[in-house]
Design a protein that fits this description.
Layout (H helix, E strand, L loop, with lengths): L21 H7 L2 H7 L13 H12 L4 H12 L6 H17 L5 H16 L2 E5 L2 E5 L4 H27 L13 H17 L5 H18 L3 H17 L5 H13 L6 H4 L5
Helix pairs in contact: 1-9, 2-11, 4-8, 6-7, 7-10, 8-9, 8-10, 10-11
């Protein structure tokens, strides 16, 4: 698997830190960011980089300057609504094809299926609701074809990232990313603590959010490596633009640490209890 980046390491509290239970599982969902940022992965009573710096972090990266905004962003992350729905649409369609055809999904067939689904959806439909029958108008063909082309390009990006992750030992051979929910849920685990450090939320609110992040992660994935691959793909689709640069490399290094350090929560906490 190679060696992690020099200077990057896992940091945690051996005294006073969470080591077991649902809160700990939720904290571990933010471990990739913790390793990357040099923060304590299992510190729930969060002070982070200090009150002023935690507020600056939320303002500069998320546009959060008050409690209500923090609550909104946290809920969006916990509901996996912060990242692009197109990413999850493409991956969920592949999951459906995999179930129907026994696991293997040909990329060409996946691309064709995307086109079929989007064109059918764009053709308009009739819906029976409480107010009677409603007809949804068809979308312009040029608009639909542009959408199909965009999602098919996305499929190419996804498969190239997956190939690189297999080469780097993040994904096992013949495995693929099932969901990018981890990108939102990993951030939710950290957002809860960032908001606590910035005094936008209480310890009780932060713990509740961390537990929810862990619970939803266990519904979307089967293991820490699967969760990690989903997070890394989401990060790269958001930031990396197929440069395979720092946005990608730093997460691969963090992944390797969490999969090899004897004190790693990913080696000591069951992903599903």
């Amino acid at each position: 698997m190679g060696e992690p980046s020099v200077g990057m390491r896992l940091r945690g509290l051996s005294v006073g830190g969470r080591l077991h239970g649902p809160v700990t599982h939720g904290l571990a969902c933010g471990a990739l960011l913790c390793v990357n940022n040099g923060s304590l992965w299992n510190a729930m009573g969060w002070h982070g980089t200090g009150y002023d710096n935690e507020r600056s972090r939320l303002r500069d990266w998320w546009g959060i300057t008050k409690r209500e905004q923090w609550q909104h962003h946290l809920r969006s992350l916990l509901d996996c609504e912060a990242s692009s729905p197109v990413w999850e649409f493409a991956l969920s369609l592949r999951r459906t094809i995999a179930r129907d055809f026994g696991g293997h999904v040909d990329m060409g067939y996946w691309r064709q299926a995307v086109g079929k689904v989007l064109r059918t959806k764009a053709a308009g439909s009739t819906v029976l609701g409480p107010d009677g029958i409603t007809k949804n108008d068809a979308r312009p063909e040029s608009e639909t074809e542009a959408e199909v082309e965009g999602v098919q390009r996305l499929i190419g990006r996804i498969t190239r990232y997956e190939a690189r992750m297999r080469a780097d030992g993040v994904l096992d051979e013949n495995r693929y990313v099932t969901s990018v929910d981890a990108w939102d849920l990993g951030h939710a685990s950290k957002m809860a603590r960032w908001g606590l450090g910035a005094r936008y939320g209480t310890l009780q609110e932060a713990e509740s959010a961390v537990i929810e992040a862990g619970r939803k992660a266990a519904l979307s994935y089967r293991s820490w490596p699967e969760f990690s691959a989903g997070y890394i793909l989401g990060r790269c689709l958001h930031f990396d633009d197929e440069e395979f640069g720092e946005w990608y490399e730093s997460m691969v290094s963090a992944h390797r640490i969490l999969m090899s350090d004897p004190g790693s929560p990913w080696l000591n906490i069951p992903f599903r209890s």
